Amino acid sequence: MAWFDDEADYYEAAAGPLRQGDLVLAPTISIEPGGGESAGVAPAELGAERLVVLWSAITSTLPEAPSIAARIRWDLAMVLPHDCALEKEFNERAAQLIAAGASEDGAIAEASADSRLDRHIAVAPIRGYEDAHLERRQGIRNGQRLGTFPVVASARYLIEPGWVDLDAPTTVARSLFAPAMRVAALSSQAVNYLRAALAKHWAHRDLSRAEELSRTIGRTIVAVHAAPMPKDRLRADLVLDDAATITLEGSRKPAAPARSTRRTV
């Protein structure tokens, strides 16, 4: 059984401050040209989607903005940034307070109470498989489709199977997330897979590493493929510009950055 088939391997209870991989209830938005309906009563059920007019053009001539509407969805979403990014300003403020003579506990408490720090959080919508093309669904379930991340069904957390759409992130104010809006958290193992999916999506390959290896080998690397290996082993096949392949094996997977947080709220 793959890791993403078992909810016990995939989820854990959400606790403490927001963290990377948390599943939350949140609005996600895409901006579209044209008109829409007027803003009105909030959606009363998950999965509801509305096209709301934001503004209407008068002249339709630049530099005036065109008519714009927002397609807003109210549903499950996943927190994307690493814990370090979620607490960047908080950590800087705590360090300043400690340098000024405050105790570590006092600095953490004071920085945690400052609602101006790290106000914005990026989340991505979780969609059902009916929203994906039929030929893409199995690849998404297996964690192999670029720009997606599988979400496991959970009887404990009442979550349907689906996938995170990494192409459609939305910035949401941290203050929106009341405790009741946090549904579940990813396990440390699942977060590592999320990080890999994000890395592949935003930087399909690590160009600096590829260039360094190319200089060492004396050939240009045109493709890198992960190869199946026993548990806790890493192997990659490097395809060169003359169609030759070099296989690299490591004794262990590189250690992922530790998940940590000092924020108290």
Question: What would the keywords be for this entry?
Answer:
single chain, 265 residues, 2 domains, nine-stranded antiparallel beta sheet, 23% helix
Oligomer: single chain
* 3D shape: globular
Number of helical elements: 7
Could you give the distance between the termini?
Answer: 37 Å
Would you identify the regions where 5 or more consecutive residues have pLDDT less than 50? Answer: none
User: Pairing-aware structural class of the strands and helices?
Assistant: alpha+beta
Portion in helices? 10-25%
- Compressed to H and E, one letter per element, the order equals HEEEEHHHEHEEEEHHEEE
Please state the average pLDDT score.
85
Radius of gyration: 22 Å
Quickly count the domains. 2
The share of residues in extended strands comes to 25-35%
Number of strands: 12
Task: Outline the biggest β-sheet.
Answer: 9 strands, antiparallel
